[in-house]
Write a structure and sequence with these properties.
The chain is α+β, with helices and mostly antiparallel strands. Helices cover 53% and strands 14% of the residues. The protein contains 6 helices and 5 strands. Helix 2 runs antiparallel to helix 3 and helix 4 runs antiparallel to helix 5. It is rod-shaped.
Amino acid sequence: MKTRYSASSGCFYPYDVDYGANLPPDVIEVQQSDYEAAMARPIGHTFAFVKGRLVIAAPASTPFSELSAPYLAEVRATRELILNRLAGIGMAAVIAGDSGTAGAIAQIRQQLLDITQAPPVTAAMESEDLPALEEAVKLRYKEIAAAVPLSVRTAFNQVSQ
């Protein structure tokens, strides 16, 4: 059994329906089995008829940079929240003459700015593994927070969970 297909409309036109003069000019005759295969193709796959033969193509893969961009934007936003909180704690330390806390904040600030350069983070980015990237960043936040004085640790509360 056969049916018809038009690439310009992207539609099949069964023979048992009378379309009159309304068929697109590029209609071709195709096997019913090709119609069934086209309709059963995996989600996201496309199809075309090339020289009368059905060709089903997998979707192009999304580059890792596009997949990771929303997460990395989230990392930057979280980092900004922590840096803003640290700025307040650091200013209070400077005013109180607490050079130890002020110095610790300067170091923490740099570690936060370099969070995406930590070896586990860069390894996950190089391997294009989004779950590993998320885990590496989360672990790095925890490492930074664990190494700071208790008076500074509150800057990490609720943002690096």
